[in-house]
Amino acid sequence: MGQQDPALSVVVPMFNEEGVLPLLAERLRTVLDGLAEPYEVVAVDDGSTDATAAGLHGLRARWPQLRVIRLRRNSGHQAALIAGLMRARGSYVVSIDADLQDPPETIAEMLALARSENLDIVYGVRADRSSDTAFKRLTAGAYYRMMRRLVGKQVPAQAGDFRLLSRVAVEALRDLPERTPVLRLVVPWLGFPSGEVRFLRAERAAGRTKYPFSRMLALAADSVTSFSAAPLRVATWLGLVGVAVCGLLVIAVLAAFVSGRTVSGWPSILVAVLFLGAVQLLCLGLLGEYVARIYTAVQARPAYFVATDSDPGDAGDPGAAPEQRRTGDDPAVLADSLR
């Protein structure tokens, strides 16, 4: 890092957030200006179709610390978040959503905790979920319990993408070969010294949620298949159960044959066929999920393209290929490679 690098970077992925921009800028700038140290705000426009891009450039004219990165298309929340992390230059990097459900005022507490206890990671953890529906609390609790069983107890319960990372932790993320890591699992897996700051999550300040139930299911599926081979072991156990059931049915068929009751055994045959067919289809589906991930990895396509960066710096995007690390607005920058 050079002398111009800020002490703190705040990465804010955005998609169609024009309604919340003024309030976000007001609250976030008040907090960061109060720190009395150099900072940058890295706003990543994830291919918004509303006036988010225009609003960001309008804010940048009055807020010199605001940096605007625009992706060429909507690539998803995790991809936009990674794009911001890979381009952030601060000694500490905080990621926060634009909807103000995670309070910007907590950033000062996270930074103070990281410095006082020499921590590389500080998680923002929800103190309670009383504002959520019963269904949301049930599904969220099931997700975190499953992730803690797969990854380990180092995964903090009720912690989303509101976190602080030191420069050392960010550099460790750069060295990972994964193109689209699930940061909620990868960051705890790194094993750096970590702490927690608890907060009360507010209602969305404006707009609609970008994480409906379908995307929550997709996140859970990505979390499991990208970090564990447990589903493949489930398929193995189902196969063993199927073999055992078939063995019992063979014994039943032989017993029926000996006793002369072979015609009346069609229900057991039907059950066996249906059961084995279901197990085979389930196992093929699980295998297909992993084959699809291998296929995507072999293609080596970027998860996102950076169209413009209002302040790329001298080095450009450290995640881009060497020949593509240019300054200015470069349509050829491939910004998702983590090497």
TrEMBL record:
Disordered: region residues: 309-339
Name of the protein: Dolichol-phosphate mannosyltransferase
Biological source species: Asanoa ferruginea
Keywords: Glycosyltransferase, Membrane, Transferase, Transmembrane, Transmembrane helix
Domain of life: Bacteria
All copies of domain Glycosyltransferase 2-like, residue ranges: 9-172
Gene Ontology terms for molecular function: glycosyltransferase activity
PANTHER family: PROPHAGE BACTOPRENOL GLUCOSYL TRANSFERASE HOMOLOG (PTHR48090:SF1), UNDECAPRENYL-PHOSPHATE 4-DEOXY-4-FORMAMIDO-L-ARABINOSE TRANSFERASE-RELATED (PTHR48090)
Membrane topology, from the record: Multi-pass membrane protein
Family to which the UniProt record says this protein belongs: Belongs to the glycosyltransferase 2 family.
Biased composition (Low complexity): 313-322
InterPro entries for the chain: Glyco_trans_2-like, Glycosyltransferase_2, Nucleotide-diphossugar_trans
Transmembrane segments: 234-257, 269-292
Subcellular location: Membrane
One GO CC term on file: plasma membrane
